[in-house]
Amino acid sequence: MPGDAARVDSIPFVGKTADQGGVLRYTIRYQTLDPQTDKIISVRQVIAQDGLQWQITDEIGNVDGGTWQTVSVQTWPYRFAPMLHCQNLNAPNAFWGISDIEDDVLEVINKESYTVSNILKILRFHAHPKTWVRGASAAQIKVNPDNMIVLPGETATIQNLEMQSDLASSIAMHRELVQFIHGLSRIPEVSTGKLDNVGALSGVALEILYQPLLEKTLAKRLTYGDMLVELNRRLLAIGGFGDENYTELRWQDLLPKDKVAETNAALVLKQLGVSGDTLIQEFGYDPDLEREKRAKESDLGQALLQAFDRGEAQAE
Predict the structure, then answer these.
(1) Do residues 157 and 208 share a domain?
(2) Range of the domain at 60
(3) Per-residue pLDDT, 17
(4) Which of 16, 102, 136, 138 could lock onto 22 through a cystine, CB 3.0 to 4.6 A?
(5) CB atoms within 10 A of CB 54
């Protein structure tokens, strides 16, 4: 698609309700080629609220977007909008919330890239030694792989000009910037595969190392979780199951767990009075489904025992 990528704008309002979602209008716009004239045109779709319903208007216009021509208008047959949104990370008075890569993170990334570029430029120009001569001209010196270098006079000197620094300070600055980037973005370096001086890690140590990323992910679960519940409600409504069905989210553990330690802890919690359903849910299983499976296994076991008893009776 030539030109700008598709862009979605929205107009929020203060009086937010469940059906309206806090938005009066969505606008999707992008540029593409007109198949008839082979020229770049602008395409826009406006999803606006009209009373209790939503109107979807498709329009085309010139590249500047000064004039628009309506192509089609249709009414969305549901009270909720055909689009759904949520904040990425919570931020008051900001419709989209906070992004994962804000301007401060981008600024540090640019500085880190600039530092690496300078290091590479220094290595490009100064990594190889340069031979210099004093007291003789270039024509008086013959340097071949199988010949001896002979200088024309006693005062003549030939040496190599080499870089004296190993760029330790520049490399240290690069590492500091990388750590700063991970700190601002709340992505620990260990999550990218850096395991220097880590050694064997327990579950508690993993949680400490991943704590910034865990907190960030949990914050996203609050925002994206509500959106997923609302999305499921709307899909069920479109499928004909009504618009009052709210699903329940069950997130999986973010870090790998020690099953043996968790099982022992669950047995202790069971002795302290925690219900079996709660413990089963913590392990990611459905208590009702597990009860059904256990009942089937019990019925099958009883049937086998009865068949075995009948076989013994016949044999006698």
Answers:
(1) no
(2) 7-76
(3) 43
(4) 16
(5) 23
pLDDT tens, residue by residue, 21-32:
578 889 999 998
Q: How far apart are CA 190 and CA 199, in angstroms?
A: 12
Same structural domain, 233 and 284: no
Spatial distance between the Cα atoms of 109 and 101, rounded to a whole number of angstroms: 10
Q: pLDDT tens across 235-282, in order?
A: 999 999 988 899 988 888 887 777 777 788 888 888 888 888 888 887
Would you say residue 171 lies in a domain? no
Secondary structure of the chain in the HEC alphabet? CCCCCCEEEEEECCCCCCCCCCEEEEEEEEEEECCCCCCEEEEEEEEEEECCEEEEEEEEECCCCCCEEEEEEEEECCCCCCCCCCCCECCCCCCCCECCCCHHHHHHHHHHHHHHHHHHHHHHHHCCCEEEEECCCHHHCCCCCCCCCCCCCCCCEEEEECCCCCCHHHHHHHHHHHHHHHHHHCCCHHHHCCCCCCCCCCHHHHHHHCHHHHHHHHHHHHHHHHHHHHHHHHHHHHCCCCCCCCCCCCCCCCCCCCHHHHHHHHHHHHHHCCCHHHHHHHCCCCHHHHHHHHHHHHHHHHHHHHHHHHHHHHHC
For residue 105, tell me if it sits in a domain: no
Among 54, 76, 98, give the residue marking a domain's end.
76
CA distance 196 to 84: 43
pTM: 0.63
- Where does a domain end: 225, 250, 275? 250
39 within domain boundaries: yes
Q: What does the alpha-carbon distance between residue 135 and residue 154 come to, in Å, rounded to a whole number?
A: 9
Answer yes or no: do 222 and 281 share one domain.
Answer: no
- The number of domains in the chain is 4
